[in-house]
Amino acid sequence: xxxxxxxVVSADWLEQRLHEPGLSIVDGSWYLPAQxxxxxxxxxxxxISRAVFFDQDLVVDPDSDLPHALPAPLTFERFVNxxxxxxxxxxxVYDGPGFFSAPxxxxxxxxxxxxxxxxxxxxxxxxxxxxxxxxxAPTKIAPTTFISNFDESRVASLADMRRIVETGETQIADxxxxxxxxxxxxxxxxxxxxxxxxxxxxVPTTTLxxxxxxxxxxxxxxxxxxxxxxxxxxxxTSCGSGVxxxxxxxxxxxxxxxxxxxxxxxxxxWGARNDTPVATGSE
Length: 283
Known about the structure:
It is a single chain. The protein is α/β, with parallel strands linked by helices and about 280 residues long. The protein has helices at about 10-15, 40-45, 75-80, 100-110, 125-130, 160-165, 180, 215-225, 245-255, 265-270, and strands spanning about 10, 25, 50-55, 90-95, 115-120, 155, 170-175, 200, 210, 215, 235-240, 260-265. The chain folds into two domains: about 10-150, Oxidized Rhodanese, domain 1 (3-Layer(aba) Sandwich); about 155-270, Rhodanese-like domain (Oxidized Rhodanese, domain 1), CATH 3.40.250. The mean pLDDT is about 95.
């Protein structure tokens, strides 16, 4: 049997532990407008017992004009404390389809110092399809304390990306769909050019999973290598606004590749500027 990621838990595992203390369940669903789904409304209609909703449009840096900008540690603490999550909890994150937006929440908790953070294999859509228990009752929040230990080294800035593009010192993995990467399709955000950072490799998020599950590790490694990544070298991940870049980060970490960073501003920052180089085509 092919090996699975150490950061994934099964639905059976979670269902057996729903009432154990020290467990936090987080709905990290977020959708693009074209997907036609309302994450908050879906959560309020049905969610896993004890789950809290992590609003990725709300848990952001309030002083940034970029979408989904990572909040400062104290801001992050305030949000997750209001959700009743402690930094030493076992935290299980899920989204609807299984492997789309949940990795971003996983990454945020990890970069803020939480160590026991996992994704639910198959997500909520599979959980519900299998007839597992759901509820529409609001989760009771108990007072708790999340103390962050922010690892700034795991986040790449615009200045970092300028240097990386100029020197080629780090590989760039872009999670956007191929059409936006090549420039054949427009970006969904007004004023943002399509194309990619020179030297970047395209690793669409959809290529990393199958049926809501992350690919087995042998296939995952082959997929990343076929996209042109050398897993013995450092990687920085990027996407449209920093959400799906974390899917590549999750894949890398699952393979034991820890020399990686996430470009938090991603294409919303790079593509909106007039002083950053943009390449088109597949290379």
